[in-house]
């Protein structure tokens, strides 16, 4: 049996098509055009120990979002009198990469539209600006895709031949952050203002008292878990019921497990 050699032949073989069926040119779906989301027939396929669960793509992507949780703006730009924090491409890709792999989600660029413009810096150096619009297809572990292609844009300046690659990297970062609704967990700039009826910020001691109340439901404990992470109190040290110091998050986890074991609702 002849082994597939070209990329198209290997892709066709992986999809279960014949070489004859894959001989026609590949046609990319244009943006905003619905794609076929019919789940392929997996036949007698049995997932291996390391394979993701065979679930629809929208559920797999939801699990990716659930595992990512948040990416803080911990990198800093400080040049030319400008200073700000940001989430870099490497940080975002390093966060999403292993998690999409875990859940069997593939994110593939299927179309790149680029525009270029020559420009000059304030010091007279010649630069080339590249702006790209990338169309992405999100594929789940079963081979089904989201109902339509996703689009994101990226822009970059470069003095050599790296502008296109940089711009596409930016577009990938934008896609992952936007499609993943990825929070930064930054503090609300208005958190210190209570003149509009907002409740004042709660202390670790307040949360401790609520956690330890026997009538606090498991659903409320789960909500407290989210709140203390948002407030930066997860690692706050409190005094537990035995008089020992313990992190608030660890105490919450322990109490929650004890109540689950006791049959609490």
UniProtKB/TrEMBL annotation:
<dbReference type="InterPro" id="IPR007499">
    <property type="entry name" value="ERF_bacteria_virus"/>
</dbReference>
<protein>
    <recommendedName>
        <fullName>ERF superfamily protein</fullName>
    </recommendedName>
</protein>
<feature type="region of interest" description="Disordered">
    <location>
        <begin position="183"/>
        <end position="209"/>
    </location>
</feature>
<feature type="compositionally biased region" description="Basic and acidic residues">
    <location>
        <begin position="184"/>
        <end position="209"/>
    </location>
</feature>
<dbReference type="Pfam" id="PF04404">
    <property type="entry name" value="ERF"/>
</dbReference>
<feature type="region of interest" description="Disordered">
    <location>
        <begin position="1"/>
        <end position="41"/>
    </location>
</feature>
<feature type="compositionally biased region" description="Low complexity">
    <location>
        <begin position="1"/>
        <end position="16"/>
    </location>
</feature>
<feature type="compositionally biased region" description="Polar residues">
    <location>
        <begin position="25"/>
        <end position="36"/>
    </location>
</feature>
């Amino acid at each position: 049996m002849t082994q597939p050699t070209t990329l198209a032949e290997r892709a066709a073989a992986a999809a279960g098509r014949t070489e004859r069926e894959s001989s026609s040119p590949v046609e990319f779906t244009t943006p905003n055009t619905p794609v076929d989301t019919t789940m392929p027939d997996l036949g007698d396929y049995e997932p291996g120990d390391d394979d993701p669960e065979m679930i629809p793509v929208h559920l797999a992507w939801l699990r990716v979002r659930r595992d990512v949780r948040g990416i803080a703006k911990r990198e800093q730009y400080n040049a030319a009198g400008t200073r700000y924090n940001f989430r870099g491409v490497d940080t975002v890709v390093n966060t999403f990469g292993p998690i999409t792999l875990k859940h069997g989600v593939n994110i593939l660029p299927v179309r790149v539209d680029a525009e270029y413009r020559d420009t000059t810096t304030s010091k007279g150096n010649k630069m080339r600006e590249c702006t790209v619009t990338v169309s992405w297809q999100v594929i789940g572990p079963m081979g089904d895709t989201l109902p339509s292609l996703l689009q994101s844009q990226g822009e970059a300046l470069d003095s050599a031949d790296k502008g296109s690659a940089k711009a596409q990297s930016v577009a990938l970062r934008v896609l992952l952050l936007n499609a993943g609704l990825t929070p930064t967990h930054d503090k609300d700039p208005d958190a210190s203002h209570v003149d509009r009826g907002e409740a004042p910020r709660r202390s670790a001691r307040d949360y401790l008292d609520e956690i330890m109340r026997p009538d606090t439901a498991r659903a409320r404990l789960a909500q407290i878990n989210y709140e203390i992470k948002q407030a930066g109190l997860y690692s706050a040290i409190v005094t537990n019921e035995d008089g020992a110091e313990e992190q608030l998050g660890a105490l919450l986890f322990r109490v929650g497990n004890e109540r689950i074991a006791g049959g609490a609702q």
